[in-house]
Amino acid sequence: MFVSLYQMRRDAMSQARDATENLASSLEKETERNLDVFQLAMREVATSIKTPTLLRLPLDVRQLVAFSTISDAKELGTLSATDAAGNFILDSRSPVPRKLNVSDQDYFQVQQQSRDIGLYLSKPFIPKTGDSRQPTIALSLRLEKEDGQFAGIVAGTLRLNYFHDMFKDAILGQHGTITLLRTDGTVLMRQPYHPGDVGSTLAGGHSFLPLVQSDQGSYVDVAVLDHIERQYSFKRIGKYPLIVVVGFATEDIYAGWHRRAVAIGAVTVVIDVLSIWLSLMFASLLRRRLEMESQLQQLAWFDSLTGLPNRIQLQREAGRILAHAKQNASDFATLFIDLDRFKRVNDTQGHAVGDEVLREIAERLRKHVHTGDSISRLGGDEFLAILQDCDVLKAMHVAERILHTVREPIALDSKRDTRITISTSIGIAMYPYDGLNIDVLLRNADMAMYQAKSAGRNRIHFYAPEYERKAREHLDLEIALQRDFEAKVLSVVYQPRVDATGMLCGAEALVRWYNDKMGFIPPDYFIPIAEESGLIAELDAWVLGEACRQLAAWRASGLAVPSISVNVCAMDLKRSDYPGFVTRTLEAHGLAPDDLILEMTERVMFDEAADDIRTSIDEIHAMGVTLAIDDFGTGFSSLNYLHRFPIKELKIDKSFIQGIGESMTSESLAQTIINIGKTLKLTVVAEGIETQAQRDFLSRHDCDLYQGHLFSPPLPPDDFALWAVKQSHVTLRRQLP
């Protein structure tokens, strides 16, 4: 009996240690990710201040450039920059910097006195201004002049309430704690929250030195702040001078054990004759019960069987994605995934095999989740995927891939070549159309999943029938696009680019698709389908070849077209052989690199494979090909990337051009983009010009090149040649005295 009780006591502590380690690890990852976002925004500000050309911009434009990435970090706090005296020169809260001086703050003084401190994290302080008088910390970076002299700082103030909100939902037991502290022992936040704890120190504790000398670990100690003994697990937060510590009170850990020890003792006294046999049996039952209670109490945010996030972590991830969608006015998809007839696997093969199947399915599902998305196990054979920035078409494609990957045979015994095949039914609910909160979306996706099962299983069903119809239409369109592309049905048309006098300065190659049954399909409709299906790389390669061939043909006929512009996407630039492909295409048609302009959207520069893309861009630039940003102002608009990447041309998006004469905001944005281009010595192109008023406005503000129906719609090659000849005569007559 005593051996059994001792083992039960050890098991309780072991399970508590696992739980604290899991929670510390999860909090460390989330905190590091958020601090990385904040630090990136700070470095963007520092870069903008160090760029001489940007310093000549008007204050409001400079504000736009400096804080172009603050949207990702707004919920964390505010950003600012100071001069060498500590006065604000940039302020994310106001276009005109507030009249504040921070020279008395430690995060300023440390950077002022030391050149090599790097990123500094301050002690807690109460802000001088603002509606909230809540404790705050600051991160700071040193700014220097060319000679190395101190020039000021970039600072980011972080609300400590943010960490309080992060910790408050944790289930810690009656006396459990979560503590965020600096490596010098200063407490920044503690849950349960007591205002007096913030700013206090743990440096006097017995375990403090081992805690700050290691990246992670576990120990048992009596707390400095409340003198309660706890089982602690801690983890260093990335490269930051921060540590997160999770503690479960030993009193809470052993509470169930104490109750069972008393129960075992009472039973032993009453039935002494059967003490050995009964104690062993009862101890076994109690151990299983204790394990169940401990698992519920341990706050494991990850499912123990599959390693996927469980419902608790799902709520956190879902909250993040929902906040992102609200902030960016974007959609996301909720996919309720339920394995078909999984009970039959358990009944015929046993639960061990069922568990193995679930682990394999979970691993496959992970491969379909990208950065920003979430995949979790709800329980049993139910999984939930939340796809950030996802429209109906993308949701359909991901769901189709999940159906396919789940259906692949699962090997159970390699020696006997035992395999099992299982299918799944998927219900999809779309935000914001099918619900404005996670609970409603989950319920509606669940209902859609049951509709998929009722329709025969191994299929996808949208909550709203019109989405399913739309997804099927997209799928039919994708099949038709693939077929027509292979049959060479698609064509390329060319839209002139002219200068302020109307002289031809180049042409943009644009793909067009006319289907026998569906008629003309707009590019805005089929290009996203080509991107999602993977056809876009082949399509872009074909357009590039056609455009270069046509430019060479025009020149051979005596028509002087200065250059050709072609659109490229991230998938093109991820290919290691793409720069070589461009070179070979130009050489095949006798063209020089400066005859070609490659246009890419802002989104390309923020792709997950940014390093591969940067390598291709650098190689293409080194060849002498001009690189342009298309639809500028509609994407991520991190303006600092304009001087990091070798961009030579900006195209103002047509949505801003169409607003000229109707919207002060559109006019202001168009003018701002022209100013930025002039400052950075970039060629600025306005596309989508339809009226003389738009053209006159752009001309008054020194726009370089013009494109739109006012001059000419996109034309087939022969019509383009006729237009170019006619336009050259018109331009010549204008130049005559």
From TrEMBL:
InterPro entries: Biofilm_reg_signaling (IPR052155), EAL_dom (IPR001633), EAL_sf (IPR035919), GGDEF_dom (IPR000160), His-kinase-like_sensor (IPR054327), Nucleotide_cyclase (IPR029787), Rev_trsase/Diguanyl_cyclase (IPR043128). Its cofactor is Mg(2+). Residues 330-465 form the GGDEF domain. The keyword Phosphoprotein does not apply. CDD domains: EAL, GGDEF, PDC1_DGC_like, PDC2_DGC_like. It holds the Pfam family dCache_1_like. The chain crosses the membrane at residues 263-286. GO terms for molecular function: catalytic activity. Residues 470-728 form the EAL domain. Keywords: Membrane, Transmembrane, Transmembrane helix. This is EAL domain-containing protein. It comes from Dyella psychrodurans.
